[in-house]
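Appendix C reproduces, verbatim, an entry submitted by the partner laboratory led by Prof. M.T., so that reviewers can inspect both the input and the predicted structure.
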Amino acid sequence: MSYTAWILLTASLVGLSCGIIGVFLILRRMAMMADAISHTVLLGIVTAFLITRELRGTHMLVGAIIAGLLTAVLVQWFHSRGVQQDASIGVVFTTMFAVGVILIATQVGNAHLDVKHALMGEITFVPWNKIQIPWLGEVPEATFILSVVLLVVILVILAFYKEWKITSFDPALAASIGIPVVLMHYVFMSLVSVTTVAAFDAVGAIMVVAMLITPAAAAYLWTDRMSIMLVLSATFGVVSAVAGYYIAVWLDTSISGSMAFATGIVFLLSFLLSPKHGILSRYLRPYTVSDA
Protein backbone atom coordinates (compact mmCIF):
# COMPACT_ATOMS: atom_id res chain seq x y z
CA MET A 1 0.00 0.00 0.00
CA SER A 2 1.08 3.56 -0.61
CA TYR A 3 2.02 6.09 2.06
CA THR A 4 -1.29 7.94 1.60
CA ALA A 5 -3.31 4.71 1.73
CA TRP A 6 -1.82 3.75 5.12
CA ILE A 7 -2.67 7.17 6.53
CA LEU A 8 -6.24 7.01 5.22
CA LEU A 9 -6.68 3.43 6.49
CA THR A 10 -5.36 4.30 9.93
CA ALA A 11 -7.54 7.40 10.21
CA SER A 12 -10.58 5.45 8.99
CA LEU A 13 -10.00 2.80 11.66
CA VAL A 14 -9.95 5.58 14.26
CA GLY A 15 -13.19 6.96 12.80
CA LEU A 16 -14.88 3.55 12.86
CA SER A 17 -13.90 2.53 16.40
CA CYS A 18 -14.38 5.97 17.94
CA GLY A 19 -17.65 6.46 16.05
CA ILE A 20 -19.12 3.27 17.46
CA ILE A 21 -17.98 3.92 21.02
CA GLY A 22 -19.06 7.56 20.76
CA VAL A 23 -22.71 6.58 20.25
CA PHE A 24 -22.85 5.08 23.73
CA LEU A 25 -21.01 8.05 25.22
CA ILE A 26 -23.65 10.37 23.76
CA LEU A 27 -26.58 8.20 24.82
CA ARG A 28 -25.19 7.83 28.34
CA ARG A 29 -24.50 11.60 28.57
CA MET A 30 -20.81 10.92 29.19
CA ALA A 31 -19.26 12.78 26.27
CA MET A 32 -16.67 14.57 28.39
CA MET A 33 -15.28 11.26 29.65
CA ALA A 34 -13.58 11.01 26.26
CA ASP A 35 -11.72 14.26 26.85
CA ALA A 36 -10.84 13.26 30.40
CA ILE A 37 -9.42 9.84 29.48
CA SER A 38 -7.49 11.21 26.50
CA HIS A 39 -5.58 13.46 28.90
CA THR A 40 -5.30 11.37 32.06
CA VAL A 41 -3.55 8.58 30.12
CA LEU A 42 -0.53 10.91 30.25
CA LEU A 43 -0.04 9.85 33.87
CA GLY A 44 -0.03 6.19 32.87
CA ILE A 45 2.48 6.80 30.08
CA VAL A 46 4.84 8.73 32.35
CA THR A 47 4.56 6.13 35.12
CA ALA A 48 5.33 3.31 32.66
CA PHE A 49 8.38 5.22 31.45
CA LEU A 50 9.64 5.86 34.98
CA ILE A 51 9.38 2.13 35.75
CA THR A 52 10.98 0.82 32.55
CA ARG A 53 12.98 3.83 31.26
CA GLU A 54 11.89 2.90 27.74
CA LEU A 55 9.81 5.09 25.43
CA ARG A 56 8.31 2.32 23.29
CA GLY A 57 6.74 -1.02 24.01
CA THR A 58 3.55 -2.61 25.26
CA HIS A 59 4.24 -1.32 28.78
CA MET A 60 3.34 2.20 27.57
CA LEU A 61 0.00 0.93 26.29
CA VAL A 62 -0.67 -1.00 29.50
CA GLY A 63 0.18 2.02 31.65
CA ALA A 64 -2.13 4.25 29.62
CA ILE A 65 -5.01 1.75 29.80
CA ILE A 66 -4.63 1.43 33.58
CA ALA A 67 -4.72 5.23 33.89
CA GLY A 68 -7.86 5.36 31.74
CA LEU A 69 -9.60 2.72 33.86
CA LEU A 70 -8.50 4.49 37.05
CA THR A 71 -10.11 7.66 35.70
CA ALA A 72 -13.41 5.84 35.14
CA VAL A 73 -13.31 4.21 38.58
CA LEU A 74 -12.56 7.48 40.40
CA VAL A 75 -15.25 9.39 38.50
CA GLN A 76 -17.83 6.72 39.30
CA TRP A 77 -16.69 6.56 42.94
CA PHE A 78 -17.06 10.32 43.48
CA HIS A 79 -20.38 10.34 41.64
CA SER A 80 -21.76 7.49 43.77
CA ARG A 81 -20.96 9.58 46.87
CA GLY A 82 -22.99 12.59 45.86
CA VAL A 83 -20.62 14.57 43.62
CA GLN A 84 -22.19 15.59 40.31
CA GLN A 85 -20.81 13.59 37.40
CA ASP A 86 -19.52 16.60 35.46
CA ALA A 87 -17.79 17.86 38.60
CA SER A 88 -16.30 14.41 39.23
CA ILE A 89 -14.91 14.31 35.70
CA GLY A 90 -13.46 17.80 36.08
CA VAL A 91 -11.74 17.04 39.39
CA VAL A 92 -10.26 13.68 38.35
CA PHE A 93 -9.28 14.88 34.87
CA THR A 94 -7.39 17.99 35.99
CA THR A 95 -5.73 16.34 38.98
CA MET A 96 -4.39 13.28 37.15
CA PHE A 97 -3.29 15.34 34.16
CA ALA A 98 -1.50 17.79 36.47
CA VAL A 99 0.32 14.95 38.24
CA GLY A 100 1.49 13.64 34.85
CA VAL A 101 2.78 17.07 33.83
CA ILE A 102 4.60 17.50 37.16
CA LEU A 103 6.26 14.08 36.82
CA ILE A 104 7.45 14.96 33.31
CA ALA A 105 8.89 18.26 34.52
CA THR A 106 10.63 16.83 37.61
CA GLN A 107 11.43 13.16 36.93
CA VAL A 108 11.79 12.49 33.21
CA GLY A 109 14.94 14.54 32.67
CA ASN A 110 16.46 14.56 29.18
CA ALA A 111 14.35 11.79 27.68
CA HIS A 112 12.28 12.69 24.63
CA LEU A 113 8.99 12.67 26.48
CA ASP A 114 6.98 15.84 26.90
CA VAL A 115 3.32 16.84 26.97
CA LYS A 116 3.24 17.46 23.23
CA HIS A 117 4.92 14.11 22.52
CA ALA A 118 2.52 12.26 24.82
CA LEU A 119 -0.72 13.92 23.74
CA MET A 120 -0.26 15.17 20.18
CA GLY A 121 0.42 12.14 18.02
CA GLU A 122 1.24 12.76 14.36
CA ILE A 123 -0.47 10.54 11.84
CA THR A 124 2.12 11.31 9.14
CA PHE A 125 4.64 9.18 11.07
CA VAL A 126 2.35 6.13 11.23
CA PRO A 127 3.46 4.44 7.95
CA TRP A 128 7.15 4.48 9.01
CA ASN A 129 6.80 2.48 12.23
CA LYS A 130 6.05 -1.02 10.91
CA ILE A 131 5.94 -4.50 12.42
CA GLN A 132 6.02 -7.93 10.76
CA ILE A 133 2.68 -9.76 10.84
CA PRO A 134 2.37 -13.39 9.65
CA TRP A 135 0.52 -13.66 6.29
CA LEU A 136 0.25 -9.88 6.09
CA GLY A 137 3.87 -8.81 5.89
CA GLU A 138 4.97 -5.41 7.14
CA VAL A 139 2.12 -3.37 8.59
CA PRO A 140 2.24 -0.06 10.49
CA GLU A 141 2.05 -0.84 14.20
CA ALA A 142 -0.67 1.73 14.85
CA THR A 143 -2.80 0.37 12.00
CA PHE A 144 -2.52 -3.19 13.32
CA ILE A 145 -3.37 -2.18 16.89
CA LEU A 146 -6.37 -0.11 15.75
CA SER A 147 -7.60 -3.04 13.63
CA VAL A 148 -7.51 -5.34 16.66
CA VAL A 149 -9.25 -2.73 18.83
CA LEU A 150 -11.99 -2.23 16.23
CA LEU A 151 -12.57 -5.99 16.04
CA VAL A 152 -12.81 -6.22 19.85
CA VAL A 153 -15.21 -3.27 20.01
CA ILE A 154 -17.50 -4.75 17.35
CA LEU A 155 -17.51 -8.21 18.96
CA VAL A 156 -18.28 -6.88 22.45
CA ILE A 157 -21.03 -4.57 21.17
CA LEU A 158 -22.68 -7.34 19.13
CA ALA A 159 -22.35 -9.95 21.90
CA PHE A 160 -24.19 -7.77 24.43
CA TYR A 161 -26.20 -5.51 22.12
CA LYS A 162 -29.47 -5.85 24.05
CA GLU A 163 -27.73 -5.15 27.37
CA TRP A 164 -25.93 -2.08 25.96
CA LYS A 165 -29.22 -0.76 24.61
CA ILE A 166 -31.16 -1.16 27.84
CA THR A 167 -28.40 0.14 30.13
CA SER A 168 -27.89 3.17 27.89
CA PHE A 169 -31.54 4.22 27.81
CA ASP A 170 -32.88 3.02 31.18
CA PRO A 171 -30.33 1.78 33.78
CA ALA A 172 -33.05 1.38 36.42
CA LEU A 173 -35.02 -0.99 34.19
CA ALA A 174 -31.84 -2.87 33.35
CA ALA A 175 -31.07 -3.37 37.05
CA SER A 176 -34.63 -4.50 37.78
CA ILE A 177 -34.46 -7.31 35.21
CA GLY A 178 -31.11 -8.57 36.46
CA ILE A 179 -28.61 -6.95 34.08
CA PRO A 180 -25.36 -6.13 35.96
CA VAL A 181 -25.41 -2.38 35.29
CA VAL A 182 -22.21 -1.58 37.22
CA LEU A 183 -20.27 -4.36 35.49
CA MET A 184 -21.53 -3.20 32.09
CA HIS A 185 -20.45 0.33 32.95
CA TYR A 186 -16.89 -0.74 33.69
CA VAL A 187 -16.73 -2.96 30.62
CA PHE A 188 -17.81 0.03 28.57
CA MET A 189 -15.23 2.27 30.26
CA SER A 190 -12.63 -0.36 29.43
CA LEU A 191 -13.63 -0.14 25.78
CA VAL A 192 -13.42 3.65 25.90
CA SER A 193 -9.97 3.49 27.51
CA VAL A 194 -8.57 0.92 25.08
CA THR A 195 -9.99 2.76 22.04
CA THR A 196 -8.71 6.13 23.24
CA VAL A 197 -5.23 4.85 24.05
CA ALA A 198 -4.90 2.93 20.77
CA ALA A 199 -5.92 5.98 18.75
CA PHE A 200 -4.41 9.00 20.44
CA ASP A 201 -0.74 8.04 20.09
CA ALA A 202 -1.17 7.86 16.32
CA VAL A 203 -3.54 10.73 15.62
CA GLY A 204 -3.43 13.00 18.68
CA ALA A 205 -5.80 13.79 21.54
CA ILE A 206 -7.72 16.47 19.63
CA MET A 207 -8.70 14.10 16.83
CA VAL A 208 -9.59 11.30 19.27
CA VAL A 209 -11.97 13.52 21.23
CA ALA A 210 -13.45 14.89 17.98
CA MET A 211 -13.98 11.38 16.58
CA LEU A 212 -15.50 10.08 19.81
CA ILE A 213 -18.03 12.87 20.19
CA THR A 214 -18.82 14.73 16.96
CA PRO A 215 -19.77 11.90 14.52
CA ALA A 216 -22.04 10.36 17.17
CA ALA A 217 -23.61 13.75 17.95
CA ALA A 218 -24.22 14.25 14.22
CA ALA A 219 -25.73 10.76 13.85
CA TYR A 220 -28.04 11.47 16.81
CA LEU A 221 -29.64 14.25 14.74
CA TRP A 222 -30.53 11.90 11.89
CA THR A 223 -32.21 8.96 13.63
CA ASP A 224 -33.84 7.68 16.82
CA ARG A 225 -32.80 4.05 16.22
CA MET A 226 -29.59 2.99 17.89
CA SER A 227 -28.58 0.48 15.21
CA ILE A 228 -28.83 3.11 12.46
CA MET A 229 -27.09 5.62 14.70
CA LEU A 230 -24.14 3.26 15.10
CA VAL A 231 -23.82 2.82 11.32
CA LEU A 232 -24.18 6.56 10.66
CA SER A 233 -21.66 7.52 13.34
CA ALA A 234 -19.06 5.09 12.02
CA THR A 235 -19.70 6.31 8.46
CA PHE A 236 -19.36 9.96 9.50
CA GLY A 237 -16.07 9.08 11.19
CA VAL A 238 -14.64 7.57 8.01
CA VAL A 239 -15.97 10.42 5.82
CA SER A 240 -14.38 12.97 8.19
CA ALA A 241 -11.05 11.12 8.10
CA VAL A 242 -10.90 11.02 4.30
CA ALA A 243 -12.21 14.56 3.80
CA GLY A 244 -9.89 15.90 6.49
CA TYR A 245 -6.86 14.38 4.80
CA TYR A 246 -7.57 16.10 1.50
CA ILE A 247 -8.35 19.37 3.29
CA ALA A 248 -4.91 19.11 4.92
CA VAL A 249 -3.25 18.44 1.56
CA TRP A 250 -5.09 21.37 0.02
CA LEU A 251 -4.19 23.79 2.82
CA ASP A 252 -0.78 22.23 3.60
CA THR A 253 -1.57 21.97 7.30
CA SER A 254 -1.96 19.41 10.12
CA ILE A 255 -3.67 16.23 8.98
CA SER A 256 -5.09 15.31 12.39
CA GLY A 257 -6.30 18.86 12.94
CA SER A 258 -7.99 18.91 9.53
CA MET A 259 -9.71 15.59 10.25
CA ALA A 260 -11.03 16.98 13.54
CA PHE A 261 -12.19 20.08 11.64
CA ALA A 262 -13.96 17.84 9.12
CA THR A 263 -16.01 16.25 11.92
CA GLY A 264 -17.21 19.75 12.78
CA ILE A 265 -18.31 20.29 9.18
CA VAL A 266 -20.21 16.99 9.22
CA PHE A 267 -21.97 18.01 12.43
CA LEU A 268 -22.83 21.46 11.04
CA LEU A 269 -24.35 19.92 7.91
CA SER A 270 -26.34 17.50 10.07
CA PHE A 271 -27.47 20.32 12.33
CA LEU A 272 -28.77 22.19 9.29
CA LEU A 273 -30.09 19.42 7.05
CA SER A 274 -31.16 16.43 9.16
CA PRO A 275 -34.84 15.68 8.42
CA LYS A 276 -36.16 15.75 11.99
CA HIS A 277 -33.87 18.08 13.98
CA GLY A 278 -32.24 20.14 11.23
CA ILE A 279 -32.72 23.91 11.35
CA LEU A 280 -33.48 24.21 7.63
CA SER A 281 -35.75 21.17 7.70
CA ARG A 282 -37.80 22.70 10.49
CA TYR A 283 -37.96 25.99 8.64
CA LEU A 284 -39.09 24.38 5.38
CA ARG A 285 -41.47 21.91 6.99
CA PRO A 286 -45.14 22.79 6.22
CA TYR A 287 -46.89 24.47 9.14
CA THR A 288 -49.53 22.29 10.79
CA VAL A 289 -52.06 22.77 13.53
CA SER A 290 -49.97 20.61 15.87
CA ASP A 291 -47.11 23.12 15.53
CA ALA A 292 -49.25 25.90 16.96
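The longest strand covers residues 130-133. Additional entries are available on request from the coordinating office.
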